[in-house]
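Quarterly update from the structural biology core.
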Amino acid sequence: MTHTPTDPPSSGVVTGFDDEPTQPIPGDLIAAVDTSAAGTDGSPRADSREAARAVSVWTTAQASPAAQRKHKYTPASTAHPAKMLPEVVRHAVTHYTRPGDLVLDPMCGIGTTLVEAVRLGRRAVGVEYEPHWVEVAKANLDGARDDGVTHDARVFQGDARQLVTLLPPEYVGQAALVVTSPPYGPSTHGQVSVAPGEGVQKYHHRYGNQLDRGNLANVGHHRLLAGFTRILFGLRTFLKPGGHIAITIRPWREHSELIDLPAQVLACGHAAGLIPVERNVALLARAAETDFVARGSFFQRDFIRKQREAGLPLHLIAHEDVLVFRTALFPLRSRELKGSQREPKGLLRSACHTDARVPGEVEAVAS
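Predicted structure, tokenized:
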């Protein structure tokens, strides 16, 4: 399958409109970028050339996250602090693979990538660090089987930084696509509850044990980048020649400073020897006839409201980036394959530097 690299959406898309959280946009623009017209089996609808055409804006939030997961994921899945939107996975799987292809997620969480892949007729394999989420992912795959989806999917528990020794040799050179997303930190917006006299309480917003430094969510931003680079390097062993890696990522704030995480992950991919081919936008807001309807969490909305009251013109997040890389188009010879499974000296040197405070670890340079 050939994919034409697409340029990032022009900033002129919303030029001339008031800068508000809900942006008026032309109906013909929505029709042009609407990629939700794929059939249930993952193939484009025969009556929609627009749906089959490669675009850089993915309309992946036309239905709410809860509606996208309804009847496909166990109630226990709700507790995960950072779940990928199923429609993001479905779009990537539909556009970068064919039925029967293998899809891999090295940090699979509740198994969203795996579940959506098998429901589209693909094979799937995932790795998850936390044992609890491994069991939840397996339960979600069992749910697909209960719905009549015959699939070949497996979940392994372990540290994705050790991917080469973690996955069986049968997966070497087999994956057509990787869909994944790194953790942004030890906590997320999570969910809220309101109790009389206690106000608003946050829950399900943290990854596992915060003292567990084996979990990438707990190692700090710079070491997260170094670890993610190592994961990307390991993925090369399991991808087919010309296989794709789709990474969902967005800028985030740390101590009120905006961090361009997509640009840093782009540097991680380059350091890992991958070829960047696309930078797309996956909408987190619903594209209505004339508006973007934001789907921000309670804490996102509360934060934006307070910042505006303080005079800062911040807005709700309406999208996340999807960075797409691919591997070389020609297969590695056996000698080269063995070399690709060994992390070369200085792999991270271009993107990372040694942290003198913690001997033996590396820390990525925040650009």
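The chain is about 25% helix and 20% strand.
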